[in-house]
Amino acid sequence: MSAGIALITASTAAVGGPAMAAERPGGTVLPWGSATATWTSTSPAPGVEVRTASISVPQAHPVWTVTVQAPAVNRMTGAAAWAELGDARWAAKSVSQLAAAGIEAHVDRVPWPAFTDTPHGIEGSRVRVGGLPTQADAKKQAEAVTAAGLHPLVEWTGYDVDQAPDRESVHVGIVDPTVFHGSVVADHGDAVAGRSTTSAQARAAGSVLAVNAGFFITSDADGVQGTQAGLGVYGGVLDAQSSGGRAALILQDGGRHSQVANLTSRATVRDGASSYSINGTNRVPGKIRDCGRPGVSPTEQPRQDFTCTSADDLVEFTSHYGTDLPTGVDAQAVLDGRGRVVDADTVGGKVPTGGEVLQGIGTAATWLKAHAVVGRRLTVDERVRDSAGRTVPLTGRTGIVSAGPILLRGGKVTIDAATEGVVDPADLSFGYAWAEQRQPRTLAGTDARGRLILVTVDGRQPGVSEGATLEEAARLMRGLGAVNALNLDGGGSTAMAINGTVVNRPSDATGERAVGDTVQIIP
């Protein structure tokens, strides 16, 4: 924790019995069974409080193990894949094959989590070998499993939802808009097309509290690094289009009013009576990270960490883009601040200050070439709507970050994991570890008093902090008093900064990860 932040409170709650749960002062129930939790609290600004919990579960005894992976097929690509779960017939055959090699294995029947849009009952069978004290021991056992003709995976059982973790580290930021008189903003750093750490963005913004926010592109093969893989609005400007109707955090009036909702975006360019849909903003035409847009292939539904394609694609670039424009396109039009076409002959370059650029491929390029005539005015219309069809006003003090899935609605656990594309009941090779095992998580929600709750749960660190499943994340947010909540980007991106200094423990071996956007609390 950064220097100059005073310790306000410290307390410990110990709760025994497997059916009970640890509580922090105020009665918030944690989702990790019988536990001991030590809470400390700091206040980096009036109306802003950060509570930190160090949680231990004495009854938990996770070990290293070897999971036998089942052969599978990626439903989107048809490529061979591996899954941690298979059917009962495959499990029985695998156990017999291991026994013939002198290796004893056991089978666990793994139930579906309490998602709202997936089947109930047993999801699949998991085959495992041994409970070993060290990772090195597990790797050695995995070699024997490979020699038996199977495909092993070394795992820490503390990441399993069917066993309590031994350690958790949780940071909770609470912003009370009736007391805090600054701004809560969505921030993408210097440019949409760029990555910087949460703490670097915090220092640049002068914030007292910050967390990482939405999903973003991390590889040049999927587009431009740092650009959002989902809806992003910064200072009222729609800088990234939605991925289906995924969850989003809306910050209206500089964060005086925060809301969690499923949102979609739509944009259209018009030339008189003729129009064409703009299917993306600030991304490479033809590449749609996380899918979820009309007319893209192989799916129009959201699909986490998957890049869809489109041969006919019109993309808008705003002045927030911040880097060279793509060059592999069929047509480009540069518009000034009034929407008048000032250049329709060149490709590439940069977005002019106060202007915008349209790029098209396929039929979108055909439309653009016919209508983007120098001197002609084109009108771009953009709308963001919630799941009820209501328009979300975009003013200069509106920010939106998005990820998914929704965790809570009206105080009830409501995880639409399949709808938001983070699991696929028809493809068990997709999303199991991401959604159903413990991972580092960043979460956001609002409580009945209108306060914003920002949470990080460290993970991927055996003996230090295991993380949370999506279901555990939802119950944690409900226990903290949230009535509506969503999952933000997690994994190595999970970070919380106070006064520009990271206070949690990011999971990447190289330290804090550079991200696409953040939520910043600025006094």
Automatic annotation (TrEMBL):
Domain of life the protein comes from: Bacteria
GO MF term set: hydrolase activity, acting on glycosyl bonds
Keywords: Glycosidase, Hydrolase, Signal
Taxonomic placement: Bacteria, Bacillati, Actinomycetota, Actinomycetes, Streptosporangiales
Residue stretches making up the Phosphodiester glycosidase domain: 333-519
Protein name: Phosphodiester glycosidase family protein
Signal peptide segment: 1-21
InterPro entries, per the entry: NAGPA
Organism name: Actinoallomurus oryzae
Pfam family, one: NAGPA
